[in-house]
C-alpha cells in the first residue's frame, strides 16, 4: 500500500460559468451546483468548488461523476492538483491574508 503524502493526495477544483438568463437556465445551474455538492465538493468561491481526494483512484471516481453531471450550456473547467500545490495558495480577503480551507484529517493504519 502506498503511503499518503502531499504528492499523492489530490484536490479537484471545478470552475463553472453557467447561464442564468431563463428559468430553465437557473434550474440547470442549481441542479449542477447541488449535485456536485452532494458528491463532496464545497464552495471555495462563487462558481469554484473543491474536493479533497486521498488518491488518484479516488479522484478519478469523482472526475467521472462531475463529467456525467455537465450541463448542456455554459463553461465548466476541472483542474486536479496535488495537496502540495494546493498548500502553496495564498488567500486574501481584501488586503488581509486568510486561512486555508480545512483539510480532512488522515488516518493511517500500520
In words, what does this structure look like?
Helices cover 32% and strands 27% of the residues. With 110 residues, the protein is α+β, with helices and mostly antiparallel strands. Strand 5 (92-93) and strand 6 form a beta hairpin.
Give a topology summary.
Layout: E1 10-17, H1 23-38, E2 42-45, E3 48-53, H2 56-69, E4 75-82, H3 83-87, E5 92-93, E6 96-97
Antiparallel strand pairs: 1-3, 1-4, 2-3, 5-6
For the structure shown, list the relevant keywords.
globular; alpha+beta; 4-stranded antiparallel sheet; 110 residues; 27% strand
Discrete helix count: 3
> Kindly, what is the distance between the CA atoms of the first and last residues, rounded to a whole number of angstroms?
10 Å
Strand content: 25-35%
Q: Compute the gyration radius: what is it?
A: 16 Å
How much helix is in the residues? 25-40%
> How would you write the strand order of the largest sheet?
2-3-1-4
| Average pLDDT reading | 89
Profile the largest sheet. Answer: 4 strands, antiparallel
The low-confidence parts are 106-110
Element order: H for helix, E for strand = EHEEHEHEE
Q: Output the structural class.
A: alpha+beta
Number of strands: 6
Tell me, what's the shape? globular
Amino acid at each position: 500500500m502506498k503511503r499518503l503524502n502531499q504528492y499523492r493526495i489530490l484536490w479537484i477544483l471545478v470552475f463553472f460559468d453557467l447561464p442564468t438568463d431563463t428559468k430553465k437556465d437557473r434550474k440547470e445551474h442549481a441542479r449542477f451546483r447541488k449535485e456536485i455538492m452532494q458528491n463532496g465538493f464545497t464552495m471555495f468561491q462563487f462558481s469554484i468548488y473543491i474536493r479533497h481526494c486521498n488518491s488518484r483512484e479516488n479522484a478519478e471516481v469523482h472526475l467521472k461523476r462531475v463529467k456525467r453531471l455537465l450541463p448542456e450550456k455554459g463553461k465548466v473547467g476541472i483542474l486536479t492538483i496535488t495537496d502540495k500545490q494546493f498548500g502553496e495558495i495564498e488567500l486574501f480577503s481584501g488586503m488581509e491574508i486568510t486561512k486555508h480551507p480545512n483539510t480532512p484529517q488522515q488516518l493511517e493504519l500500520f
